[in-house]
Amino acid sequence: MAVVTTSVELPVSAARARRLAAVPEVMQFVLAPVLTFSTDEFPAPDVAITPGFSASGRVKWLGVLPTWTHRITVIALDDLEVYTKERGGPVRVWNHRLTFEPTGENSCRYTDRVETEHGPRGWGTTVFARLIFRHRHRRWHLLTSMLAAERDRSRPDPI
User: Fold this and answer.
1) 106: domain range?
2) Cα 61–Cα 64–Cα 66 angle in degrees, nearest 5
């Protein structure tokens, strides 16, 4: 297997970031506008995603160019980690681990680690993983920075 790992510092607690990672709308936000994933199989917003949850959906580039159907299955989900197995179209193997390591009361290190096919077939997937993770991490940082600013505004003024 080929492995791609990328990390970013986020200005929210590890627990909050991990909870956000299990929200389908957050997944959509961090992939947008490069990719969209549409499915009717996600649970209602008030229903938690649990290990064993599986969904298939259509992937679109830039929200308009339809590509393949992608399948995601949640293998493990705990307080600081999400592990999924995914596949679809040219991507035969996408074993994705998201980890959230506390670095402070209101900060964490978020790491994407994905195992893909090794060799010529997996080369394109590996390059794609590096590019999409850079994009995802920028979007994660944007989202959590907005949440941190909201958190900080709601604190009483110490003066």
Assistant:
1) 2-126+134-153
2) 65
Domain containing 27 — which CATH number? 3.30.530.20
Residue 33 belongs to some domain of the structure: yes
Dihedral over alpha carbons 69, 82, 98, 18 (to 10 degrees): 120
Q: Are 69 and 89 in contact (CB under 8 A)?
A: yes
Between CA 100 and CA 65 the distance in angstroms is 32
Is 158 part of any domain?
A: no
Let me know if residue 67 belongs to a domain.
yes
| Number of folded domains that form the chain | 1
Q: In sequence order, which ranges of the chain are alpha helices (DSSP H)?
A: 14-21, 24-31, 120-154
- Count how many residues are written for the chain: 159
| β-strand partners of 95 | 85, 115
Encode the chain (159 residues) as per-residue pLDDT tens digits: 899 999 999 999 999 999 999 888 898 899 999 999 888 777 776 667 889 999 999 999 998 999 999 999 999 999 999 999 999 988 999 999 999 999 999 999 999 999 999 888 888 999 999 999 999 999 999 999 999 998 777 766 555
Cβ-based neighbour number of residue 43 at 10 Å: 12
